[in-house]
Design a protein that fits this description.
- Keywords: Membrane, Transmembrane, Transmembrane helix.
- The two termini are 23 Å apart.
- By secondary structure, this protein is mainly alpha-helical.
- The protein contains 13 helices and no strands.
- The protein is globular, with a radius of gyration of 19 Å.
Amino acid sequence: MSIAQQVSNGKSKVLIATASGLLTILLWSSLAVMTTSLPNIPRFQLLWFGFGEAFIIGSIILAITGRLREMAQPFAPWFTAFCGIFFFHLFYFVGLNFAPPAKVTLLSYLWPTMLVVCIAFLSTKQFHIAYILGAIMGLIGTIFLMPADHGAALTSGNLIGYLLGILCAIVWTIYSLVNRRYASVPTGMMIGVCGGISLVAMGIHFAFEPTILPQNFKEILTILYLGCGPMGIAFLAWDYATKNANLSLMGSLSYLAPLLSTLWLVLAGKAPATMGLLIAVLLIVGGAVVATYPLQKK
């Protein structure tokens, strides 16, 4: 293979990985509106159902394609993926019990900024100042998405919730950085990870939550979507993106998730359209454009 072909293949791989990251962001953005449509389903029961569904469907696909062995991988990458995904959800769901959900969500979405800043210190080859500017614009835009929560006085309970939100961001930043070390590990491993998370979530559910089954066909379809999308394909796509795409660019583009999440809530009538939302749109989309400038230039 010539050098030109190798360069072309490398660019195609990065492009596909970037598209995978954007697919993940799109799927994650639908998580809030879908979850709010299931107010009666306990959160860890939802994790059990969602990741369990992803495991079953993924296992069938791997079996049909003769790739079941991809789930059996060394301990380090398997444990890294499990801890990253499980502890993010654990801290997030527990945090929602202590502090206003919007603020916990905002703090959990500090991970794009953390990721970009960490890349700035760890790499001098791929880093560009546009990534920092895009991340800062995205952070400011995300703040404009914050509603004024009533009764959100600073209490010890709120502090615990805020701390858990920050821990979400730290966990996901570390996972995204460390996961790049296992670029040679097949993405099919994530199917097994989904199965492990489902089992642990089931244990937590039976220990602390009541079991409430879906009440109608709409709730069943929503759970099926969550298992296939935000709790299924999304993590496989993010796994591929973190191993092959530009992490600085991915960190900046990830601010599109809270923006799109808010837009879906507005369209579904679960959140009001405000001037703050318009400003957020301009800042977050503008930040994404700034962050992609180096890629467009290349």
